[in-house]
Design brief:
The structure is a single chain. By secondary structure, this protein is α/β, with parallel strands linked by helices. A 6-stranded mixed β-sheet has the order 6-7-8-3-9-10, sandwiched between helices. A 4-stranded antiparallel β-sheet has the order 2-1-4-5, with helices on one face. Strands 12-13-11-14 form a 4-stranded antiparallel β-sheet, sandwiched between helices. The chain is globular and about 70 Å long. The protein binds adenosine-5'-triphosphate. It holds the Pfam family ABC_tran. It comes from Butyricimonas paravirosa.
Length: about 300
Amino acid sequence: MIVAEDINMKYRQVLKEIVALKNISLEVKEGEIFGLIGPDGAGKSTLFRILTTLLLPTGGKATVGGYDVINQYREVRNIVGYMPGKFSLYQDLSVEENLRFFASVFDTTIQANYDQVKDIYEQLAPFKNRKAGALSGGMKQKLGLCCALIHKPRVLFLDEPTTGVDPISRKEFWDVLKRLSKDGISVFVSTPYMDEARLCDRIGLIFHGGLLDVDTPNRLIGKHDKKLVAFRARDMYRLLKDIRKTPGVYSCFTFGDSLHTTFEENDFPVEEFTLSLKEAGYADVEWRDIKTGIEDYFMMLTNDISDGTGY
Ligand SMILES: Nc1ncnc2c1ncn2[C@@H]1O[C@H](COP(=O)(O)OP(=O)(O)OP(=O)(O)O)[C@@H](O)[C@H]1O
């Protein structure tokens, strides 16, 4: 449903050129949920805008549903639903007015496509007369999804649809995405939440405009072949700096309330190292072996590029 071949994007500014995408190639199948994962500024929104025909790439070729995103942009627009990163509905229109407006843009009606949006629309129904701007974050995103679905698209593009949304609404949102994918709709979604990344069928890891790897969540995690240890102490910032400069440490980054650390050799003497940290003044330092997550694999890949800091 989506094929991108060697997509490049450079933004030209007066004095410099910003390389936003470098040789992006990927494919997304019918009914597949494909997640694009990467930090702010990695190029995610740029790729969304190119694939939804809103931006011309400076190089490469892409098709959506078999249609070329440049030469057949009208056909592409008819078969895609797009939810941009920022809430882009009319804040002063009610829930129902927004939906009716989006339906009319595609020359259809809410009734004609009711089966497609029924699940979400029923959750919105109690608020149908409320102005979109007065909805909660989770409800706004559900309305955005409803509007993106109203013309029965075959491909959904969702740019960080659940950022800032509470965990229960996030779960409900993903339940809807799973149902849509079962109906054959392809979903191309970006998210900063690693628990959501695991819900995707496949993931593309993007960093500094380049795709580092594409695979299923489990296979990506399986590629992390380094011993992983979490350290904790009261003075985390000093500990981070000290661990990073220890010979034999491959990478160390903050994750939640601990420091995820890998080593050049998997037989690194963690016990002895912890003792030396205690002697160096970290009386309360603790360590434990931990299971690898997608973010650990991501950090391992970016480590060489980013010199151990992940950024
Ligand atoms: N219109 C523009 N003009 C110049 N540079 C831009 C423009 N849009 C994006 N960029 C730059 O291109 C790079 C990729 O930005 P992009 O917004 O695609 O990343 P992102 O992964 O979506 O991050 P975020 O989630 O912060 O938007 C960044 O360096 C950004 O500053």
